Amino acid sequence: MIVIVLNGSINSGKTTTGRALAAILPGARFIDGDDHGIPKSVPFQQMIDRAVLWVAGQITAATEPFLVIAYPMRDSDFAMLQAACAARHARLFVATLAPPLAVALTNRGTRELDDGERARIHEMYVEGYPARAFSDIIVTNPATPQQTATMLARRIARL
Questions:
Q1: Which domains does the chain have, with CATH numbers?
Q2: For residue 1, which of 77, 64, 55 has the smallest C-alpha distance?
Q3: Predicted TM-score of the model (pTM)
């Protein structure tokens, strides 16, 4: 099994690229890290901690040859997902999507950012989400999600 995590800030293209990548890879399943089902009333930090546990559980239960996961990772999240992959003898591949900040702050597709999301994008850039040391690849060019997915699929095929 190969687990591909698309890391990056809010609005970096993780979900759209992830769906496109899962459509290319044979037998792949896409997991949106935002689909964890944790109520919005849960304090933010607790929600993040519980969400990464949910993602790790998805890796543990998976039967597909490829999992494509859209999830912004901190160093502690990477360690947890790396351990979940190791327990499954799965390869973890992290692709960080890091468009220029001005691009991440732009309404794209059908998504309209609110002020809170714009503020969080700024915070995520300051916190280093676009340049995580654990990344296997950092994608900085603002290519289309389909182009990025195709490039990543080629890279993954060489693993």
A1: 2-157 (3.40.50.300)
A2: 64
A3: 0.92
